[in-house]
Amino acid sequence: MRAIHRILPVMLAAAAWGGENDSFLLRNATVHPVSGPAIQNASVLVIDGRIAEVGPKVAPRGRIRVIDARGLHVYPGLIDSGSPVGLAEIASVRETVDTGEIGDFNPQLRALIAVNPSSEHIPVVRANGITTVLVTPGTTGGTRGASTAGLIAGQASLMHLDGWTWEEMEIRRSAAMQMTWPVIQTGRGGPPDLESLLPGLAARRVTFAEARRNQQLQVQKIQDFFDAARRYQKAKAAGEAIAPDLRYEAMIPVLEGKLPLMIMAAREREIREALDFAAREQVKIVLAGVRRPGKTIDDIAKRNIPVVLGTPFVTPLEEDDPYDEPFTLAAQLHKAGVKFCFASFNVQFARNLPYEAAQAAAFGLPYDEALKSVTLNAAEIWGVAGDYGSIDKGKYADLIVTDGDPLEIRTQVKMMFIKGVPVDLESRHTRLYKRYMARP
Amino acid sequence: MRAPVLALTLFAGAACAADVVVIQNGTVHTVTKGTFRGSIVIRDGKIADVGEKVLTPPGARVVDATGKHIIPGIIDAHTHIALDSINESSVSVSSMVNVAEMLNPESVSIYRAMAGGVTVCNSMHGSANSIGGQNVVFKLRWGADARGLIFDRAKPSLKMALGENPKRQGSPQGLQIPGLQSPQNLRYPGTRMGVEDVIRDAFTRARAYQREWKDYEARRARGEKALPPRRDLQLEPLVEVLEGKRLIHAHCYRADEILMLLRVFDDFNIRGVTLQHALEAYKVAREIAERGHAVSTFSDWWSYKVEAYDAIPYNAAILHRKGVLVSLNSDDAGGAELMRRLNAEAAKVMKYGGLSEDEALAMITINPAKQLQIDPWVGSIEPGKDADLVIYDRHPLSVYAKVEKVFIDGRQYFDRDEDMSRRPKIEAEKEGLRRKLQDQQKQAMPQNRRPS
Hints:
The structure holds two protein chains of two kinds.
Chain A: H1 2-18, E1 24-31, E2 39-47, E3 50-55, E4 66-68, E5 73-76, E6 78-83, H2 121-126, E7 130-135, E8 152-160, H3 166-169, E9 170-180, E10 187-188, H4 192-197, H5 199-202, E11 205-206, H6 208-237, H7 246-255, E12 261-264, H8 268-281, E13 285-288, H9 297-302, E14 307-309, H10 325-336, E15 340-342, H11 353-362, H12 367-372, H13 376-381, E16 399-402, E17 413-418, E18 421-422, H14 428-437
Parallel strand pairs in A: 1-4, 1-5, 6-7, 9-12, 12-13, 13-14, 14-15
Antiparallel strand pairs in A: 1-2, 2-3, 5-16, 7-8, 8-9, 10-11, 16-17, 17-18
Chain B: H1 4-16, E1 20-29, E2 35-43, E3 46-51, E4 61-64, E5 69-72, E6 74-79, H2 108-115, E7 118-123, E8 131-134, E9 136-139, H3 146-149, E10 157-161, H4 164-170, H5 192-221, H6 235-242, E11 247-252, H7 255-268, E12 274-277, H8 285-291, E13 294-297, H9 315-321, E14 325-328, H10 342-351, H11 357-362, H12 366-371, E15 389-392, E16 403-408, E17 411-415, H13 416-444
Parallel strand pairs in B: 1-4, 1-5, 6-7, 10-11, 11-12, 12-13, 13-14
Antiparallel strand pairs in B: 1-2, 2-3, 5-15, 7-9, 8-10, 15-16, 16-17
């Protein structure tokens, strides 16, 4: 902590002197490009926010400011591929949570529109090395993370964790259309909260047949919605006079295969149905929240469908599952050749994203893959690998400077740059820490 | 529970077996007496010897721990696992109920938590009421029956709760559905003022009740004839608290309500309380330290409710630096999710606040042991203590560390290799059962046409 206070003011002062806030030479560091092996005693030259050169021998250009990073490591900024950061402040207070809109189909909603750039969560998440978040409209801001949104929750936006307005944070306003595949829900009828209030109703057992029928009705609703959107798209393409409809308009990039449909599907049955649906509709999909792919795993791999894994910090799905079932899933996907990234799907624990990847590494995932799952793979999945995800010439300088492996808990993030601009690592938490540590 | 007599006998048999185990050549983190490369001798379930060089008794079972790390079993001072019911939320003072009655030894969370290195936990009553029920400390002896789990040397304790949780049950603006009136919304208290009143009132009644019994005993001692007072099962545990025979674990969040509780306890001369959660305790660390109370908290939880908005991951470090005994807990209920990663939670106090390795490890071993007053037997690797030990494949404060073996009372309860090698057999058995069920369903089809 103290080191951060020491380095940052010096750096910012240097920036003011240099006049160019997004150009600098970072040197004497171990650079981990992620796209290739680590380079010892290397430099990163950043000009106008982009990486101009990386390597052991990089000469400073003109009066550019020089940052000495001796003994430190440089990594690309980490990417959380799913979180309501900025959309939810205090999980239990409805008024502060802007996820999960009412209604089954809301493809017209764009998460970024409602992001609060001054949310206290943003600097907190940033302080652990996360520069970028896919902000999702359909995940709860709650502790337990489950999605409660409708079937199509809206457009997930890829954003930087810094900016005075959401436009300044924007990387891709629309990076994916978030959708939840209906689940066959047996057992008790209502959500647990309702159970205590409406015991008679909630305690009613839903039979498998009933649950299956409910699920099929929901699937049919999705099909109907897609069919209607497709008719709209065709009519529009044919130049027919039709009343504009923002919901169907929003579906056009999905139907054209330009915008991936991010489908939340945990178990084999939902995944199978989602895969079949995608093939039938010929849309591009990303599977999210996958827990038990079972026999679909080879199909996912064969069809090059990327997967967004939720946190492995959950208990196994079934009582008789191996105790480490959530920890080994990533390694299993990797072995099958599936491309995946990690997401927190949560606000309060979003800062623990790097440890999600590390947990997978502890249980069989090669370390390099773990690192990629929160950097380059995420950038590739969201279609921004040309600009982000690794330390390569020409990419934006989203960089973190650390005193070690960024996936390890003890490691401190010493500096952060977003598009080459130094970012403050102070937060509500560091402010309160300083204030109360100093209390006599 | 199903066959208590048999299970008890088996368990006792296992515990009495006088086999000697030597864990050799590992990095031993004693927590209280330093860290070194050495060995641990286990005899009759206790740590017999520990050091860089120890004598290996003949016939001992040798566990090679070269390249491995050994720590004392992790102690979770705040969980709700393996309880069939957690909250008696109908009344504001439910000190008469005891969660030990609801301990379920078959809960798989016991195995999972144990596989994450936890050997002892304090499974508590919930936070629905200002004065909750009695808690149970148990060892995670997977396979034992309920009685065999309970750590009977642990001091009895009582749960209390302040703030949003007990308020919620009484809030006139609480969970409301139009047209429905839930009786839960009518329970007093509904404010922090009411919470203070409920606690003060309960201990005032307990003190009067204590006096009644003292008077009665004094009269009897004088040889007078006297009728005993009517027994009050609600007040008896509170009297035990007043007499220092029962510990308190008090769920709290905000600094102001923590001070409120400390002042009430001052008035009743109640000492040695463990403040649970206490996410704003860092703001009043001095007041907590002055009175010698302790804090058991989360490493980095925040913002899930209003009273957790000022929670910071530096809480544990500030409290520790200002002289408070601190532990880190999971608060796990249904499953043992965080329990099995408490080593990583401990590493966070090094990240946030820069504490040392030993300080971090202490927060999940000896500190919770002290808070539960079981530190004479567990919480560090010292001769004479119970052989509750965890072997990791690397430094336990690394996020990459995996538990390889767990010993409780010297008996090995977990071995990762064994767990792994059992899996194909279990999978085959499950597949067989699945097939059998399918066949049965197929055969049963024709006869089963009649509506049932």
